[in-house]
Write a structure and sequence with these properties.
Blueprint lengths: L11 H6 L3 H9 L1 H9 L8 H14 L2 H7 L12 H14 L2 H6 L3 E10 L2 E11 L3 E8 L5 E3 L4 E3 L1 H4 L2 H16 L5 E7 L6 E5 L2 H22 L12 H5 L21
Parallel strand pairs: 3-6
Antiparallel strand pairs: 1-2, 2-3, 4-5, 6-7
Length: 264
């Protein structure tokens, strides 16, 4: 197995050998799209929303100068930050005023570890790792309101909706394999509202246990698909599926009433 470092963490070779939290979630969403992404045939791209989060990540990581240099597109012609990044600056200033938030984000940054779940190699990269104490991950989002999950047919916390419980389960398990300690997982979150809201959320152990079981159960199949064994499923809804579709039959409009019913 290759050694995973910060220089090769996001490489194609690393993506082929190791699963990561985001790769696992990509497979859960659409197997074919996940494979296309690994092959380099498809990219979900970096939206402004993602870049705003990356800007704040870079601040906490202590690499904001490098980030600014690598992304000239975040500046207006006059040299000022564009609105989204000016807002990111304001969020940072607000968070700096809260000692507890800063303490949770003051662990070792971007710590990489590897291990295996369900016999499948995994790599993780933690935002803020407090050795022997806790794992914290930074999230920037629109707001903290529950989100309607059409597949689950109910409202969920943003933590579950975005699969941050799955992320916590994978991080906690890989850290446990490396250190023998099962650490609590926290989301250090801030909102992009006009007046930023922010909090530290502890993700309950029962959510993490439940998700880890699922990761154990599903990972071997995703690893098989990566080795070219078996047929990947198409979700029929994602960007990749839309971009590569051809009409095979005329649909009854009633199918639209049950958009998600056939896939879960
Ligand atoms: Zn798809």
């Amino acid at each position: 197995m290759m050694d995973i470092t910060k220089d090769n963490y996001y490489s194609q070779a690393a993506a082929l050998e190791y699963m990561s939290c985001s790769q696992y979630k990509a497979f859960c969403a659409c197997e074919e799209q996940a494979l296309a992404e690994i092959a380099g045939d498809w990219s979900r791209g970096s939206s402004t929303a993602l870049l705003t989060g990356s800007y704040i990540d870079a601040y906490f990581e202590g690499t904001l100068e490098e980030f600014r240099a690598a992304h000239p597109e975040i500046f207006k012609r006059g040299g000022e930050l564009k609105a989204d990044y000016a807002q990111a600056e304001n969020i940072i200033k607000r968070l700096e005023r809260d000692p507890k938030f800063m303490r949770y984000m003051s662990g070792e940054k971007q710590v990489i570890m590897t291990g295996e779940i369900g016999g499948v190699p995994y790599k993780i990269k933690m935002d803020s790792y407090h050795e022997g104490k806790a794992i914290a991950d930074l999230k920037i989002m629109r707001d903290f309101a529950p989100i309607w999950n059409e597949r689950a047919r109910r409202r969920q916390s943003f933590v579950r909706y975005w699969g941050y419980d799955t992320q916590g389960a994978i991080y906690q398990e890989i850290v446990r394999q490396n250190t023998g300690e099962r650490l609590p997982f926290y989301i250090a979150a801030a909102t992009k509202e006009r007046y930023t809201d922010y909090d530290i959320f502890g993700v309950p152990q029962e959510w993490l246990d439940e998700r880890l079981e699922e990761v154990r159960r599903l990972s071997p199949h995703f690893a098989e698909l990566k080795r070219g064994e078996g047929e990947p499923k198409r979700c029929g809804r994602c960007g990749w599926c839309r971009e590569t579709k051809t009409i095979t039959y005329i649909k009854d409009a009633r199918e639209l009433e049950d958009f998600y019913a056939d896939n879960d």
